[in-house]
Write a structure and sequence with these properties.
mainly beta, 22-stranded antiparallel β-barrel, 47 strands, 5% helix, elongated, disordered C terminus
Length: 798
């Protein structure tokens, strides 16, 4: 019923504009060459107003030289046509008053001197602007065969751990898809990013201090993943295929058909992965009452073969030069079969309490996500003056079936079996209304409304095998139901003004959040309603054409997710359980950043410093539930102070060697006195990212990526350093329509995650590694019916 209301509203909103368009006239005609008398394709045709010469429409001629402007308002106009190698031509002024008008143009080719143009250039890998850094994925060889997670490792300021969790400047980050919140980027964001094919991504935007028009979630900022959508005329497409070691493979295709008024697009990709993970967990635990110590060692080997499919289909339709709308749908399916074997060894002060057994887990998971988006955009008479309505809906169910068996060597008891069935659903609704108005050449106003309505339902059913009844019976301790509702409504405005050398962007966003955690099992409801204001400020000052200063500020928030609030445990490992905290407060972050940009002769430097003050920062606290079970939950720190500096060093030597080196140093001081830790802790950590490519001629390129992260601080201990290096090579074939490439990730098998935890009653060391050295051999081919003229040969480099 809600979908019907939304559709009716959109139809009602669009109807007056369509009726208005039907009352307007049309202008059509052809463009031909003077000497050959032949029609000319791909000629730029511009409709201009006689009064102010402003552009009222833009078209490109068809294969027969034709063009059409529909729904042209009444008025006086002229048409201008231009094409490389021909003299520009324009028509006399004519009138439109509701009827169809014919205007034919002839381009003079008698004075043509242009025979061939060779453009050899490579789009910059990294582009810096006033409020974000843009990483162009098509320049990354790893993007041909790898996943989004692997490409993110190469993006400046971004860190990806061995589990695929993404952070920005060592802090939590919000990940958007095409600028919008996606349910896929919730609980299982790491898994989805490891399955999302990188060749479906056009660019990745890193926004450390987003402006007020963006959702203010994420301690470190926002990462916006922009997916490809071809807009070239005609039929175009790309096909890719990759095979890897351990029976890995992935393949995909994307198609686009653009007639000018109608743009149809679609894509489909599959990926079969293989992951083997080993984890060693050693701990020394002392009973707080008896002060007797016990040692625990868990050795886990987890084997997983996830298979995923991603499909996208949609269209954009131009009603007239000022009005267009579009509809698109996405489907994601991930099936996973997982086998875990954990060897558990317990040595206590009393030999009678020693344990030695294997815990075997067989897991079947299926995760789906179906989403749809509709937009309508109306442009006013002034260029770039527009309003856009967009509605996004998504439904994401997930099923997880776990079968557990404990096989004992000590004590000598019969095997034990238990199982859990987890049903989770996420419903997401988002409505945005965005308005943009360039008040002048130097001033721009943006305003809008953003409403997000989310519902998460987590239903856990636990059963244990009863040897007497010879059947599974419900386990009340492992059965629970939790529903989390989050409605956030916001209005925002930004004001941008350019002066002679300075640009200012000031913004303000007000949000009302209505959050309710429902513990269905216990009948408890925990509401949390609040209104907060988030100001932003961005300044840039151009010292010279190649030198620029930047200063920006934003107030941000990090809201807890459903899993972080759910107080019920999953019990995958009965001796190491993780639960949520329904009383967890959102983080509040004040962030200031200053930067400088210098570039000359293919070299650019972007040093920056930043300071963040975080109240209520989330942190994981592990405590003993009893003498054999540890429980981990999120808690709020009193505050967290972080000061950092980084520099992006870019080198481009004649498009042969392209290098980006990004070192980052980070000082962190945390106050956990509210959690019973008496001393404030501080540390200095650093990381470095290197992304380098070298071209061997115009057809072959080599690439190297590496990342190093030093030790990082936690209230109870630290994470140890980690390092990873990836290599890739690409060879273009078939007149640069195809390419063959090979990639190797984690060349030296150094990727790992180690953590130390120390407390008065607990000492723990956890180390995790995986089969992250992955080989891929792949091929991609791009095709299309867009034809280039014989006298024009464009070479975009390789």
């Amino acid at each position: 019923m809600q979908k019907l209301y939304v559709f009716s509203f959109l139809l009602f909103f669009s109807l007056p504009l369509m009726v208005c368009a039907q009352r307007s006239g049309s202008v059509s005609g052809t463009v031909t060459a003077l000497k050959s008398k032949m029609p000319l394709e791909f000629v730029n045709v511009v409709l201009r107003s006689q009064s102010d010469q402003s552009v009222k429409g833009h078209e490109v001629t068809s294969a027969k030289g034709g063009y059409t402007f529909k729904a042209v308002p009444e008025g006086h106009y002229y048409i201008q046509a231009s094409y490389i190698g021909y003299e520009t031509s324009k028509t006399p002024v004519f009138s439109v008053s509701g009827e169809a008008v014919q205007q034919h143009l002839i381009l003079d080719d008698s004075k043509r001197t242009l025979q061939q143009i060779n453009i050899k250039s490579r789009r910059a890998v990294l582009i810096n602007s006033i409020d974000k850094k843009v990483y162009n994925v098509d320049q990354d060889i790893m993007a041909k065969s790898g996943s989004a997670s692997e490409v993110l490792q190469n993006v400046p300021l971004v860190q990806v751990d061995i589990d695929g969790n993404v952070s920005l400047r060592n802090s939590a980050v919000t990940i958007l898809i095409n600028g919008k919140v996606s349910p896929l980027m919730g609980k299982n964001a790491a898994a989805v990013l490891q399955q999302l094919p990188a060749n479906s991504i056009e660019k990745i935007e890193v926004i450390t201090n987003p402006s007020a028009k963006y959702k203010p979630d994420g301690t470190g900022g926002i990462i916006n993943i922009v997916l490809k959508k071809d807009v070239k005329r005609g039929l175009n497409g790309t096909v890719t295929g990759n095979v890897g070691n351990r029976e890995r493979y992935n393949a995909g295709t994307s198609l686009n058909y653009n007639t000018g008024m109608l743009n149809l697009f679609g894509s489909y990709s599959v990926k079969q992965d293989d992951r083997v993970r080993t984890t060693t967990n050693q701990r020394l635990q002392t009973d707080q009452v008896t002060h007797l110590a016990s040692t625990y060692q868990d050795d886990l080997v987890a084997k997983t073969r996830p298979f995923s499919q991603i499909a996208n289909l949609g269209f954009d339709y131009t009603i007239d030069p000022k009005n267009n709308f579009g509809l698109s749908g996405n489907f994601y399916l991930r099936d996973l079969h997982k086998n875990d074997l954990t060897h558990k060894l317990v040595t206590s002060s009393s030999a009678a309490d020693d344990q030695d057994y294997n815990r075997i887990r067989e897991n079947f998971e299926q995760e789906k996500s179906t989403s749809g988006a509709f937009y309508f955009e109306h442009g006013f008479q002034k260029e770039d003056h527009k309003i856009r309505l967009e509605v996004n809906v998504a439904y994401s169910p997930e099923t997880e079936d776990n079968q557990y068996t404990n096989v004992y060597s000590k004590p000598a008891i019969a095997d034990q079996q238990d199982r859990t069935l987890i049903l989770q659903t996420a419903d997401t609704r988002q409505v945005t209304l965005a308005y943009e108005n360039p008040l002048s050449a130097q001033i721009k106003l943006e305003a809008g409304y953003d409403g997000q309505f989310n519902r998460h339902d987590l239903d856990f059913s636990g059963e244990a095998f009863n040897a007497v009844l010879q059947s599974f019976v419900p386990d009340i301790q492992k059965t629970n139901h939790f529903i989390y509702n989050e409605n956030v409504q916001a209005v925002y405005g930004t004001y941008t003004q350019g002066f002679q050398k300075m640009t200012l962007m000031a913004g303000l966003r007000g949000e009302y959040s209505a959050v309710n955690s429902h513990l269905i099992t216990t009948g408890v409801s925990i509401p949390n309603h609040y209104f907060k204001v988030y100001p932003t400020l961005h300044l840039s000052y151009k010292l010279q054409d190649n030198k620029e200063l930047q200063l920006n500020y934003s107030r941000r928030i990090r809201r807890p997710e459903a899993d972080e609030l759910n107080p019920f445990a999953e019990y995958a490992d009965p001796t190491n359980i993780r639960v949520g905290n329904p009383y967890l407060l959102p983080e509040l972050i004040n962030s200031v950043e200053a930067g400088y940009h210098w570039k000359k002769n293919g070299i650019s430097l972007m040093p920056g410093i930043y300071y963040r003050y975080t109240m209520n920062r989330f942190t994981s606290i592990t405590a003993a539930l009893n003498d054999s079970v540890l429980v981990t939950r999120q808690q709020n720190l009193a505050n967290d102070k972080a000061f950092g500096a980084d520099v992006v060093v870019g080198v481009n030597l004649q498009d042969k060697l392209v290098l980006n080196f990004i070192p980052n140093i980070f000082y962190n001081k945390i106050d956990a006195t509210n959690l019973g830790y008496g001393n404030k802790k501080s540390t200095i950590t650093w990381s470095a990212n290197l992304n380098a490519s070298y071209s061997l001629g115009t057809l072959t390129a080599l690439q190297l990526n590496s990342t190093y992260k030093s030790a990082r601080l936690t209230p109870q201990g630290k994470f140890l350093p980690s390092f990873v290096m990836n290599l890739g090579a690409k060879r273009e074939v078939l007149h640069k329509k195809g390419s063959i490439y090979v990639t190797v990730s984690d060349v030296f098998k150094t990727q790992r995650q180690e953590a130390d935890l120390q407390g008065p009653y607990l000492i723990q060391h956890v180390k995790t590694t995986s089969n992250s050295r992955i080989f891929y051999l792949g091929f991609s081919y791009s095709f299309g019916v867009v034809k280039k003229k014989k006298e024009l040969q464009f070479d975009n480099g390789g």
